[in-house]
């Protein structure tokens, strides 16, 4: 009113000759407008308070989604085929060839299903199912294009069978637009069955649909088709628990479940009576004051414990089956870093297709509850701590959220469809710390290649033709040489004519390179047909045929290592606080020079395509340290040291003494040291291994007739 | 005037309405249409603002579930490990097996299986001791099961072995017995209860068996990509580009030229395509032996020992309906994966499949693992060399305790050793030797195995490390007994005659730390094929190669004591008792069979060689080296079923060994004294 007065007082100036009748008219009009504005302002705040009362928003949503009326005679799917396997019931054609090796998952849009009378047949979507569908929709697996999808997920919440109308839900499934007997449909269910017999798989008829179920037993689980998933525990997500490292805890064994069969409870309590303090058997509390959540408390006699916090106080926690095999308690126990003792005969543990539960749990048959304590006691402490770490990893990776559960499920199915791109046992099961530190040698099979295979010599050359020819002539005398490959690294000059090359008994091939790069010497040329490669510089003419042949023999016994002649060492310089390159007379070696070295051809592939960081380009740019890079690479991937053969210390050619000056030597050493520091930082570790031995022929320098020795011509420095 | 008034009126009205619409309508509209989700083309699953308010699928207030009915009725088909096997019959010392004697005339294979069981660690002397009863099903014709033996007990704790598929009716008739069957059908196989066996060819060797055919780690560049099964159990290889639809002979005309001689017994290719029919299961083993990566097209049978073997590391199970996709994937497979798969085929073949005996022992080991529960073999031990049959779970459950897994576990063998001095033949206490060994910085303890036949000397030298004397009646094989007093990973095995310097001990131990799975020794023997005798022989002559090191002075891992005592058949250990030379050969056989690698020789001062002979048969000690018992090596080769020894042509010396530099620079300088 006040505002309108203001307006009217200003009014005369604006409309001076207005009559009273008109004035009232105007005042009324402005008031209406103002009221409208006020109302809008209030409305701006209204919707939030409406949404705050939850149900209303859900109602609104369900009012907004399309309604599907299911006639009572609409088709019901078949019960479910127990013999289904991926190659019989799954339509792989929908997945097709996919360069990314990722399945595409489609989620049906939300609908409301009602029966003929208009009564809703499905409950509203649960929080977890909403989360699950969101997780899938946010993942790389999701597609909006139903025609490109390989897997279909209905938006009908089946997580708990408790609230389901079995027949009507099945009918609702059957009318999904791509149902087709359930082919390629994935249903999620965590709480299957219902009283009195509690089936271990979802009772909803589902024909060929895959079931990701939370309580499978060996006879409902279709191995390699269904996926066993955990029963998610909302409680674990709500409660924050502090971190706890591995090691023994206050209670050795704890049972915290409330609904335990009396017979089993008796047995557990007998254990407690026998072992005293170490065993704690909790039950529900009977005398809690009002307002205290009974699910968050457990009692032993009159002592009250907080749940799930109490789980953190125990080393082993019993997860006993109830009416259902799958128990949410398993999630709580994993969350607390307690090693689960699973007592549920024939239960298929979550994700057991890929997870190695032996590493993170103890399975005890129901008949053996009484012996359980002894079994657990016999586990050595180291193994127990290993299990605790494993429990933690499983929780973090696959159990901690609905999203983790959903993604693990899809990954398992994905691995079945693209088996050649599947995730390995180690990737699923090894905790990150183990993954980083363990070495898996790519040449792990102990195998001594036959001598007859021989080796391929690769000579990198630029323009020292004369020296090159001498090297070729010398190397060709080695009995086990099977091919010689010259890598012509000079783009400005053509290699000599065919007729000028030395005539040797093995094939000789010249490869011309596109660019003068050091890494060309480590390229996995198709011309290399043997596994053994001898990399040799075009000025190494001092190695005798015996030395080279012996080097090859040594490589055969150590095919996964670099086998070379002069050895070098890396040292930690305490003053400078960095690595230092050492070529002096040391008692140790950690590298060999690749001026002449035998190694497996596979390392050429690794050098060219799998060298970490920018090392390869860095080496090409600096025209140095390619041998150190190779030493790093091989040591890092195999975890093994090099083998130095024969006493040789230097590749010194008679002609190049002049440039062996002191100053040059020093800058050389500084550069090489820098390389080691650079590579160590790129690798994130120092992979080189130091050893104190070298390989000599069995009878080297022994008192034995020289002419009877296999490799007499060995020994110069 | 009238006009002007009306105009301003309309103006004010429309202005205020405009204002109203602008400010007020949009929220009103939003409410009126619908809250989230937006009905128009949702991007993914809609994100609801009120998601947190949704009900959880499991209400904590839900009444506690009905109490369960413990132990359901048991049916044969519904058997699982927990319900149908009684582990309380098994004692702590592992699985003891009683094999029912064959009813009627037993086949040769059955007879040999029973014989091999008797000599093995699984053998139960009596029915009461046994926790597993073995029934070898008779006959190969379908439906013939043979009568149930005595003590059948409804099949409880029984294992029925069908080396041939379908030789016996299904599980329902077998009560609670487990079935180990060749290539069982996936739909009747009970995982965790039954055992899947490989489909063995009729003439599969009983013991030893042919080694894998793989000669090189990576495929030869010109090797064929694919091999396909032919009629009659033969293979032919197909070139990469033409093999677009290579199975079932549907596209035979497209196959292009066969690259190698058709009809090879074993395939020579990188991948071997094996159709899913059960009849083709025999090809699986052929491919495995040949080092040809099996590509199984929708197999209808369970892969052998799938309970413990991670087949994704050695084979590819693909869908037969997507041939082009499979081919493309094979062609594009990363070299690293091909390399790993190839090697794994060879390891698995050699560890579990190459002989009937290995297949039987693997089956029993799987069942033992189930009984052991938490102390069973970890997956790593099953799936990496040397395999679970050679890595005894009774030794330790931690892979770090074995000599084989340090790389995978990023662990190191312990930095100390225990010296074990064997005083077999009557002699003086080895005082000098004790002093030399005790002088090593790596020595943790010295143990003297004194034979009771002679009185104990009163005085022992003062040493910096603990010295233990163990006396008792001694067989030769007792020197390889896993004494609980041995606390270190490394053992330095010595004879009272041996003479070593501290420097030699130090260097040899440092070398051993780099090769903890091998034997590192000073004196060597070499084996050879003796044409004239048509058998194996071995010699102690100095030679350019060697294949055995003498345990009179050698470092090796203490695990080999456990393996020697608990895994070798009794017959072999008795053989070793016949003489120290035999024991040496046997130990070398054992280590070589496990590692498939030669032992390592380190330098040994010439001085000792002349002054004190290390062992019988060392040159220089006698005008004619004592001829080692050649019979022994042949008997062992027969018992092993093959010759495991591998020769080496190198010796590991200190880096500056005998180099013409100042002695002051050298760490192991006393090694070079004349």
TrEMBL record, chain A:
<keyword id="KW-0479">Metal-binding</keyword>
<keyword id="KW-1133">Transmembrane helix</keyword>
<comment type="pathway">
    <text>Protein modification; protein glycosylation.</text>
</comment>
<dbReference type="InterPro" id="IPR029044">
    <property type="entry name" value="Nucleotide-diphossugar_trans"/>
</dbReference>
<keyword id="KW-0256">Endoplasmic reticulum</keyword>
<dbReference type="GO" id="GO:0005789">
    <property type="term" value="C:endoplasmic reticulum membrane"/>
</dbReference>
<feature type="domain" description="Glycosyl transferase 64">
    <location>
        <begin position="455"/>
        <end position="700"/>
    </location>
</feature>
<feature type="transmembrane region" description="Helical">
    <location>
        <begin position="24"/>
        <end position="46"/>
    </location>
</feature>
<keyword id="KW-0808">Transferase</keyword>
<protein>
    <recommendedName>
        <fullName>Exostosin-2</fullName>
        <ecNumber>2.4.1.224</ecNumber>
    </recommendedName>
</protein>
<keyword id="KW-0325">Glycoprotein</keyword>
<dbReference type="GO" id="GO:0050508">
    <property type="term" value="F:glucuronosyl-N-acetylglucosaminyl-proteoglycan 4-alpha-N-acetylglucosaminyltransferase activity"/>
</dbReference>
<keyword id="KW-0812">Transmembrane</keyword>
<dbReference type="InterPro" id="IPR015338">
    <property type="entry name" value="GT64_dom"/>
</dbReference>
<dbReference type="GO" id="GO:0015020">
    <property type="term" value="F:glucuronosyltransferase activity"/>
</dbReference>
<keyword id="KW-0333">Golgi apparatus</keyword>
<keyword id="KW-0735">Signal-anchor</keyword>
<dbReference type="InterPro" id="IPR004263">
    <property type="entry name" value="Exostosin"/>
</dbReference>
<dbReference type="InterPro" id="IPR040911">
    <property type="entry name" value="Exostosin_GT47"/>
</dbReference>
<keyword id="KW-0472">Membrane</keyword>
<keyword id="KW-0464">Manganese</keyword>
<dbReference type="GO" id="GO:0005794">
    <property type="term" value="C:Golgi apparatus"/>
</dbReference>
TrEMBL record, chain B:
<keyword id="KW-0735">Signal-anchor</keyword>
<feature type="domain" description="Exostosin GT47">
    <location>
        <begin position="104"/>
        <end position="332"/>
    </location>
</feature>
<protein>
    <recommendedName>
        <fullName>Exostosin-like 1</fullName>
        <ecNumber>2.4.1.224</ecNumber>
    </recommendedName>
</protein>
<dbReference type="InterPro" id="IPR029044">
    <property type="entry name" value="Nucleotide-diphossugar_trans"/>
</dbReference>
<dbReference type="InterPro" id="IPR040911">
    <property type="entry name" value="Exostosin_GT47"/>
</dbReference>
<dbReference type="Pfam" id="PF09258">
    <property type="entry name" value="Glyco_transf_64"/>
</dbReference>
<keyword id="KW-0256">Endoplasmic reticulum</keyword>
<keyword id="KW-0808">Transferase</keyword>
<keyword id="KW-0328">Glycosyltransferase</keyword>
<comment type="pathway">
    <text>Protein modification; protein glycosylation.</text>
</comment>
<dbReference type="GO" id="GO:0050508">
    <property type="term" value="F:glucuronosyl-N-acetylglucosaminyl-proteoglycan 4-alpha-N-acetylglucosaminyltransferase activity"/>
</dbReference>
<keyword id="KW-0812">Transmembrane</keyword>
<dbReference type="Pfam" id="PF03016">
    <property type="entry name" value="Exostosin_GT47"/>
</dbReference>
<keyword id="KW-0325">Glycoprotein</keyword>
<dbReference type="GO" id="GO:0015012">
    <property type="term" value="P:heparan sulfate proteoglycan biosynthetic process"/>
</dbReference>
<dbReference type="InterPro" id="IPR004263">
    <property type="entry name" value="Exostosin"/>
</dbReference>
<keyword id="KW-1015">Disulfide bond</keyword>
<dbReference type="GO" id="GO:0005789">
    <property type="term" value="C:endoplasmic reticulum membrane"/>
</dbReference>
<keyword id="KW-0472">Membrane</keyword>
<comment type="function">
    <text>Glycosyltransferase required for the biosynthesis of heparan-sulfate (HS). Transfers N-acetyl-alpha-D-glucosamine to the nascent HS chain (GlcNAcT-II activity). Appears to lack GlcNAcT I and GlcAT-II activities.</text>
</comment>
<dbReference type="InterPro" id="IPR015338">
    <property type="entry name" value="GT64_dom"/>
</dbReference>
<keyword id="KW-1133">Transmembrane helix</keyword>
